[in-house]
Amino acid sequence: MIVTLTANPSVDRTIELAGELRRGEVLRAVTVRSGPGGKGVNVARALAGAGAPTVAVLPARGDDGMLAALREQAVAFHAVDVPHPVRVNVTVVEPDGTTTKLNEAGAPLADDVLDALVAAVLDEAAGARWAVLSGSLPPGVPDDWYVGLIAALRARGCAVAVDTSGEPLKAVATAAVLPDLLKPNAEELAELTGLDVAKLESDAECVADAARALIARGAGAVLATLGRHGAVLVDGDGAAYFGQAGAVVPINTVGAGDATLSGYLLADLAGAGPADRLRQAVAFGAAAVQLAGSAMPRPGDLRPDGVSVVALAPRPVAS
């Protein structure tokens, strides 16, 4: 079982344009698609599509259309009731794959809702292999909210993966108890390390060094996604691997990082070693960017043979 938590879920609306996005002009949409979203929800959708047992924990009204959409996709969920509708995020996609996102902040959550979300996650995680804490936090939620939940889950023997950004990510990375897996992208890794984003995207060994610093702080492993440049995995013993898909023409990058994390978790459930976990992670991410809207890839969409994985040796320390 893999449990996901999405404290700030969304309905993801994707608008595809016939030409490039031009500010201040009236543009016609070619297609418009809507579906359930939020990072943890996306992970659960990908896992369910692969036949893995999963449950998505999220705040949502019982009559919210998002829950109906999850039922249609056969995604099990545990919804904590709230008085407001799920926020709507809009993604505008140009023909060349350029993606512009307009994300609502989301509604604040009352203390009793936050307590109920924690209780739901701990309840669903009983006997689970992984708990995935993903995405932004709603306005007013303390930046260190994930930190206490990580400690509680690990104390119960459940491995924890975290994919967030900004102050919540900094709080997680500097806590006394770190997760078993951190999944930053290049921008988030730059926030944690002070390194240049362009440097990280172009230098896999630099990414590995930065990830090893997080391992030294107590993280179990780091999966750093670098967009079209691939991904780097550093395991708990410091072994590092770089994975990259072959030529891929992106249609839409929404949810690619969530798909990548899903591929990693599925490979872990299957008992794969680190190189093969990375291979499947990159294959899932590459498949996701070739799907329209916010669709999550299924195993039949994957091309793992097109993914190259190489080991990265530690760079010698300058004397």
From TrEMBL:
Statement: the UniProt record of this protein carries the keyword Chloroplast: no
GO MF assignments: 1-phosphofructokinase activity; ATP binding
InterPro entries reported for this sequence: Carboh/pur_kinase_PfkB_CS, PfkB_dom, Ribo/fructo_kinase, Ribokinase-like, Tagatose/fructose_Pkinase
Pfam families per UniProt: PfkB
Top-rank EC class of the record's enzyme: transferase
GO (cellular component) term, any one: cytosol
Keyword ATP-binding: yes
SUPFAM superfamilies xrefs: Ribokinase-like
NCBIfam families attached to this UniProt entry: 1-PFK (TIGR03168)
Annotated protein name in UniProt: 1-phosphofructokinase
